[in-house]
Automatic annotation (TrEMBL):
Protein keywords: ATP-binding, Nucleotide-binding, Receptor
Record SUPFAM superfamilies: GAF domain-like (SSF55781), Protein kinase-like (PK-like) (SSF56112)
PROSITE patterns the UniProt entry points to: PROTEIN_KINASE_ATP, PROTEIN_KINASE_DOM
Domain Protein kinase: 597-881
Biased composition (Polar residues): 376-401, 551-561
GO MF: ATP binding; protein serine/threonine kinase activity
Binding site residues for ATP: K624
Chain intervals for the UniProt region annotation (Disordered): 1-40, 356-428, 545-579
Protein name per UniProt: Protein kinase domain-containing protein
């Protein structure tokens, strides 16, 4: 695997999507294992040919076609152009390393005990590495010398495994095999998107030959699907955030906030900034254009790698934390400008600073140019407090630093300039008297120092308080609503709001008016030297933190005494020379999660708790409150939140958060707890209620027609429930209590094509009786029971729950949906049990529902089959419902066209009302097209045959 520097020469080569030509003479000579060899002349071949022929040639090593392939191009998948277009659409190439991917490759290394693991994306002529373990510094590989390029071929549907690369004629001469790192084993699974397009691979390499079991392949495939989920999630997120509507929605609500606000994605290496408001610009002096779409750590000096552990832990644990970054305040009322040390900005900053120096003296620094007035060359370091961080050996030293800082603060930032001038000459002596002005000046040349004096700025800290949008917030959380699109992306753990302000000099340390734990007695601080940061590459700092870094938390006082190492004494000295001005990190006190939830009116009681309407982070939600005794494992209260949390599907009620608090003490002294589940609010009630209210009936002149089921509404609703259940079962979760009361309806916009006129989406809820099954044990014996009317016979008689029992419950829901009446209506509990156990099961007879397509009746009957094995799976149910829905829609469209033909004189709108409401038909446009086709002498809609076939297949005719 040769590392290529994307050279123009490589780019000039024949593009892979053009047919291969005769190979030029210079290709025919190459070096293998240091020996110059001459290859036979190469014939012109089409792209698809080399792949197939080369594959065939694997069985026939002497075939010259291998040479053809090697010298012509890499093997290309059939859909290469589309594949590449799609890859580019993800905007992932050449992005920074991201923790989410690094975690997976790290996991691969450990799971499969291999030294090398990678996430790769296959670009036109290179394979680019999004995450790489074990090959430090490697960023990309020439595509034609890449093993991964082969994994894209559909010839390898699941995985490409090469036990010994030396024995494989395709790969034995690859640089990665004959040279460093001398790979022997390769296994890869393609990263396949929802369009079945292969974008890249998750692959592992070993330096010795080995076997790879099919179980390992499955595991690798599962990890690859995690990678793909991350890729899709990121794209969805980008789509959302590029969507101007969303930007406005959230932008509007924060624009007028008086506090500086910023929304960051902490999953990105340098903390991508999505939104900032006007107050942010006023406070920091950094323009909206420069901030939004950029990265936090491009605006400020990044911390040393070892210290990055602190924020990583904080973000992982969704803790809220505070950063104080030294800044240069331009003097005057509230005005400030935060220095940037981004080398690219430096010249601009200096230039602007000098040009504005005169005008800014004593000014407020609020105007745009003023914003860029003083670069801040003080190198950032981190001090942080971590839970249980008393192992940091820098504690004692840190205290000194704190004291120094306090003394520095006491010496007065604003009056620092004269001291600075004095100290400038003798820079380098760490002393309390030096104050921050000493550091300020000592970091500059004499010229700079005098220029700064003339500007009259003073050194302060700018405070950023980062709050996870998923951690239940406190009164300090910005009172703006989170864009719902962000919440629905299940990325809550990565997004943080940060407020920004510049505390007054008096509160810069210790006397913190906002009540943060900054320099609190309980928090130990460590300070980190900046060494290793500034010398590194732009992206290196975040990606280069490995587990081993955390083993050396003693970042300055006891580390190796090198000039540049993070543990360097000299770096500590350097800070002190700069007056101790450094970026500090501290965790904020735990927010009380309950403070962020406002409970409103009661929506209802269930058998295990109550549900309230409420607000969470400014969004309307439902809050389900369950009670439990601490330490008791009650599946109902303990399992439901856990289980619900891992589900994410458009037809399943979303759970945003969960928190627990003690509310009382039981008689035996154990605490009584309340579990609050923050749920998506479903504003249209339950499906059972909707049926009773006639929401699934045909509507004529605005009124529901009693007894006239609108089949399309019913089918669409049933399909959504089946889709949710298909997903649930694919996640190995049994619902256990599917019934009309546990299917909630959330208001939805009417479909633009006018076909779906329900105005709601069905969502499965209530996982209180849900259980996880395993492939070995697909049945659960349970003593907890759901709703008697919806329980399958085997659940009642044998207490055995399975996927088939859920299907039975769904059959009962279908019965209710289609008949409009409650199952076993008028019967009491014992009668129902006796009826079910004696084999008199619920049935939907054709004479009861003559208007229903036979195919639908068959589906209901099969779901309600006595024996579990006779019931369909949800995959089958879902597909059957889809088929029926399509056929019914087509049939109604055909009817509409026919009716329109009969009444051509009526105005278009009337026609639409007359036919459209009554039989829930298609749009006027479709009808008009059908009528036109009929008029032209063809069959109505021009698709009679097709419709008839579809209808017959669905059992309609
Ligand atoms: N996400 C939600 N949005 C709107 N209303 C909800 C939501 N979740 C539950 N409700 C309503 O709150 C009430 C109680 O719901 P809950 O799920 O606790 O009980 P249940 O399903 O009626 O009974 P059980 O829990 O015993 O099965 C019901 O009326 C339900 O419709």
């Amino acid at each position: 695997m040769g590392c290529i520097q994307s050279s123009p020469a490589a780019a000039d080569k024949q593009a892979p999507d053009t047919p291969a030509k005769d190979v030029q003479p210079e290709h025919s000579s190459r070096e293998v294992n240091g020996v110059q060899t001459k290859d036979p002349p190469i014939k012109a071949v089409e792209h698809e040919q080399p792949v197939e022929q080369c594959l065939a040639a694997v069985d026939e090593p002497s075939s010259p076609l291998m040479v053809v392939w090697k010298e012509v191009e890499v093997p290309l998948p059939l859909d290469e152009q589309n594949r590449w277009d799609q890859l580019v659409g993800y905007n992932i190439l050449d992005t920074e390393p991201e923790e989410a991917y690094d975690r997976i490759t790290e996991l691969c290394k450990r799971l499969f005990k291999v030294p090398i693991a990678m996430v790769t994306f296959v670009d036109k002529d290179r394979v680019w590495l999004k995450s790489v373990q074990g090959l430090p510094g490697l960023k990309q590989v020439e595509r034609r010398q890449s093993l991964c390029a082969w994994t894209l071929l559909s010839r390898f549907p699941e995985a490409l495994v090469v036990p010994d690369l030396r024995e494989d004629i395709r790969f034995k001469d690859f640089p990665v095999v004959v040279g460093w790192p001398h790979a022997r084993f390769y296994a890869a699974v393609p990263l396949v998107n929802s369009d079945n397009v292969r974008l890249g691979t998750l692959c592992i390499l070993d330096l010795k030959p080995r076997d790879f079991s099919s179980d390992s392949c499955t595991l690798l495939a599962q990890l690859a699907s995690m990678v793909m989920r991350e890729v899709e999630r990121k794209r969805a997120m980008n789509d959302v955030l590029c969507n101007t509507a969303v930007r406005h929605e959230s932008g509007d609500s924060i624009t007028h906030d008086r506090q500086g606000l910023m929304l960051c994605d902490m999953a990105t290496a340098k903390w991508a900034i999505y939104l900032v408001n006007e107050a942010w610009h006023r406070t920091t002096g950094i323009s909206h254009e420069m901030a939004a779409g950029g990265h936090f750590w491009d605006l400020f000096e990044p911390p040393a790698p070892a210290q990055v552990q602190a924020y990583r832990l904080a973000v992982e644990q969704r803790r809220n934390f505070e950063l104080r970054i030294p800044c240069n305040v331009g003097g005057g009322a509230g005005g400030s400008s935060i220095g940037r040390t981004n080398p690219q900005l430096e010249p601009l900053l200096l230039q602007q600073a000098s040009s504005t120096a005169g005008s800014m003296a004593g000014g407020n620094g609020l105007n745009h140019s003023g914003a860029l007035l003083q670069p801040q060359p003080v190198q950032s370091t981190w001090s942080g407090s971590l839970p249980g961080a008393n192992s940091f050996s820098g504690a004692c030293h840190s205290q000194n630093i704190q004291q120094q800082q306090q003394q520095q603060d006491a010496s007065g930032g604003s009056g620092g300039s004269s001291t600075a001038a004095a100290a400038g000459a003798g820079a380098g002596t760490p002393s309390a008297a030096g104050g921050k002005a000493i550091g300020f000046v000592s970091a500059f040349s004499g010229h700079e120092a005098s220029r700064r004096r003339s500007i009259g700025g003073s050194m302060r800290y700018v405070r950023f308080q980062f709050r996870s949008i998923s951690s239940a917030a406190s009164h300090m959380t910005p009172a703006v609503s989170i864009p719902p699109a962000l919440l629905s992306q299940d990325t809550r753990s990565n997004f943080y709001w940060a407020t920004v302000d510049i505390p007054s000099a008096a509160s810069t340390h210790g006397g913190d008016e906002a009540g943060s734990s900054f320099i609190s007695g309980s928090n130990l601080y460590f300070t980190g030297g900046p060494g290793g940061v500034f010398g590194g590459t732009d992206n290196a700092w975040a990606g280069s933190v490995h587990a081993s870094d955390s083993a050396a938390p003693s970042t300055h006082s006891s580390g190796p005494h090198t000039a540049t190492g993070p543990g360097s004494d000299s770096s500590s000295m350097q800070q002190q020379q700069m007056g101790g001005m450094k970026t500090t990190f501290s965790l904020m006190p735990e927010d009380n999660p309950f403070q962020d939830i406002t409970i409103g009116s009661l929506l209802g009681w269930g058998s295990y708790g109550r549900v309230h309407r409420g607000y969470w982070n400014g969004s309307l939600v439902a809050v389900k409150v369950l009670e439990q005794v601490a330490g008791d494992f009650n599946p109902r209260t303990s399992l439901e939140p856990l289980l619900h949390h891992r589900l994410s599907h458009p037809n399943i009620v979303a759970m945003f958060d969960v928190c627990t608090q003690e509310v009382d003490v039981c008689e035996d002294g154990r605490p009584l707890q309340e579990v609050w589940m923050v749920l998506e609010f479903c504003n249209r009630g339950t499906l059972s209620d909707a049926i009773q209210r006639g929401w699934l009936l045909s509507v004529r002149d605005g009124a529901p027609q009693p007894g006239q089921l609108d089949l399309l509404r019913a089918l669409a609703t049933a399909r959504e429930v089946a889709r949710a259940m298909e997903y649930l079962h694919s996640q190995s979760v049994l619902h256990g209590d599917l019934n009309g009361n546990n299917i909630l309806l959330a208001g939805a916009a009417l479909a633009p094509d006018g076909v779906d006129r329900r105005g709601f989406t069905a969502k499965v809820a209530d996982f209180g009786l849900s259980r996880i099954i395993t492939p070995e044990n697909e049945k659960i014996i349970t003593r907890t029971h759901g709703t008697i009317t919806h329980m399958a016979p085997e659940v009642i008689t044998e207490a055995t729950h399975s996927k088939a029992a859920d299907v039975y419950s769904f059959g009962v829901v279908l019965f209710e949906l289609l008949s409009g009446s409650k199952p076993y209506q008028g019967m009491h509990y014992a009668q129902i049990v006796s009826s079910i156990t004696s084999g008199k099961l619920l049935q939907m007879l054709p004479q009861q529902a003559p208007h229903l397509p036979p195919g639908l009746l068959e589906l209901v009957a099969s779901c309600l089959a006595t024996k579990p094995v006779d019931r369909p799976t949800f995959i089958e149910v879902h597909s059957k419902l889809q088929e029926l829905e399509t056929a019914v829609a087509a049939q109604q469209q055909q009817q509409l066209a026919a009716e329109q033909q009969l009444a051509p004189a009526q105005p278009a709108q009337q026609q639409q009302q007359h036919v459209g409401y009554g039989c829930y038909a298609a749009s006027a446009a479709a009808a008009a097209a059908a009528a036109a086709a009929a008029e032209a002498g063809g069959d109505a809609c021009g698709c009679t045959q097709q419709v008839t076939k579809q209808a017959a297949a669905a059992g309609l005719q």
